[in-house]
Amino acid sequence: MKQPLRKDLEPVAASFIVKKLVEPHFDPNWHFHPQYQLFLVEEGTGTRFIGDSIKPFGPGDLVFLGPNLPHLWRSDQVYFDRQSTLKTRGIVVYFTEDFLGNDFFTRQEMAPIRQLLDQARQGLEWTKDTRSRAEMALHNLTNQAVGFDRVLGLLTLLNDLSRATDYRHLTSPGYTNTVKPTETDRMQLVHDYVLGHFPDDLSLDTIADLAGMTSPAFCRYFKTRANKTFSEFVSEVRIGHACKLLMDGKLNITQISFESGFRTLSNFNRQFKDITGQTPSAYVKTYRQL
């Protein structure tokens, strides 16, 4: 039986949780939970799904999520192969809004962090210098024993993030989580099928049948839950895969187009620019400057 969409963490005596993750692959289940989550990828590649945002991830990926924001770091398929010796590593911090008391973050001195927590409900990611400083701070947190210094370390990190300017929001401004815990299996089946077949010609009728719905009903259902049409979702998955291949630098743009499920180069270039705001070649230049 699949895990429920709402993920409840095991209770601990400490005020917040810091974990080092070392696994063959990251948790493959699309889920949400009531805690804030700060997550750093140290090793591993794949596609990151947060709300209605779909982006490739790799080492150094730093994301901060607010409560009940659905997410999934889907490792590349090679990490699921039985013969694979690859592994994923990351550092994750979980805390509730009241982990230091009901009113702590409402105080005047906490205004910048309060604003950070509010913005995290859309999901946030950082780049460049902030990401490097946060990576060092997270490593320090994992090495500290439970106590005052660790609480101070987390607050210092949140304060640093609240003052940084090299951040981006992840979800669209109007995104809200409308997925119900009872719909876990249906959305999970759709995600798994698309991630396993996006290079192929995907049939809407096949997907709708998999979800146990008619095609028109499935289209309405998916748009309500994902804040985008099913075809937009598939295009973003394909473009996310193309971004990873571009960053690898092993294939030319025409090869990447076909590897990502596009049948014509012109359609690939058009959709790539629509989704990323850049041409494939410009995207590569931007990536190399990060």
TrEMBL record:
Tell me the first and last residues of the signal peptide.
Answer: none
- GO terms assigned for molecular function: DNA-binding transcription factor activity; sequence-specific DNA binding
Q: Which UniProt keywords apply?
A: DNA-binding, Transcription, Transcription regulation
List each copy of the HTH araC/xylS-type domain by range.
188-286
Q: Where are the transmembrane segments?
A: none
Q: Name one Pfam family in it.
A: HTH_18
Which SUPFAM superfamilies does the annotation name?
Answer: Homeodomain-like, RmlC-like cupins
For whether the record's keyword set contains Ligase, the answer is no
User: Which CDD domains does this UniProt record tie to the protein?
Assistant: cupin_MtlR-like_N
**Source domain of life:** Bacteria
> What is the protein's given name?
AraC family transcriptional regulator
Q: Which organism is it from?
A: Spirosoma radiotolerans
